[in-house]
Design goal:
rod-shaped; transmembrane helix; mainly alpha; 2 helices
Length: 58
């Protein structure tokens, strides 16, 4: 039984780090996409709208 407790703690630790990394990736991805959308809106809105329409059709 003493071998099970470290594995359980390690599993909980790995899951906690995995959830933390996933949340950080989602936050950074949202910020990155928002900056790209802002730059695209500043440069050309027609290309962004056409890309969004194509992606929504698929």
């Amino acid at each position: 039984m003493p071998q099970m407790s470290p594995m359980n703690w390690g599993f909980l630790f790995i899951t906690f780090i995995f959830i933390l990394i996933c949340s950080m990736i989602v936050i950074y991805f949202n910020v990155f996409t928002q900056t790209i959308i802002n730059q695209m809106n500043k440069s050309s809105t027609n290309i962004l709208t056409s890309l969004s329409h194509k992606s929504w059709k698929w």
